[in-house]
Design brief:
Helix content: 25-40%
CATH architecture: 3-Layer(aba) Sandwich
Strand content: 5-15%
Strand order of the largest sheet: 3-2-1-4-5-6
Order of helices and strands: HHHHHEHEHEEHEHHE
Distance between the termini: 25 Å
CATH class: Alpha Beta
CATH topology: Rossmann fold
Largest sheet: 6 strands, parallel
Number of strands: 6
Shape: globular
Amino acid sequence: MAYLDFLSPLHKATQRDYLGRVNGFPKAEAAKRAKQFDFDYWDGERHLGYGGYHYDGRWRKVADGLRDHYGLKAGDKVLDIGCGKAFLLYDLTQAVPGLEVVGVDISDYALEHAKAEVKSCLSKASATSLPFADAQFDLVISLNALHNLPCFELDLALREMQRVGKAHYLVVESWRNEEEKANLLYWQLTCESFYSPEAWQWWFEHTGYTGDHSFIYFE
């Protein structure tokens, strides 16, 4: 297991007004609407989620990093758990021509509005029960998705992620101090499992997850 950070440049490029997030609109109502993972979350107003999530090529650097680190090549199979609109999967196909990609998500809206070029490779499925064989994929990734699960589902999802892949890369939200914890709670809308790095390590050991990982911090 290694700590591999492909996402920090993307994450840090966004300016966040943490207090504005909680003072500008009722947080409970925003979370309630965001957790439907429908239009409001993906393409509605910013206080409800992404504020409009459209393809702009930002994931290509992440795709290149995954390609280079894991040695991805034509014919390899990659699964994205919680793929959303599948922009990263599309960029992976551009970074590695001939790569076979598969994505699963629970959001009907995201799947319906996914990148057209890879839409046929996507399906609705829960991370807690993946419809795939053991070690079916050369690489399984999950970026900013599994922290949306409560602990009893997170347990199953980590085991499933381990089961279906030969190599794995996971990104979840975390905090290293009380300021980062407060910022995370101010900003997040859908997060159910938010742990310190040490607690996440306990989860990995508890579930037998041996893949690579990195954390998103709200500094």
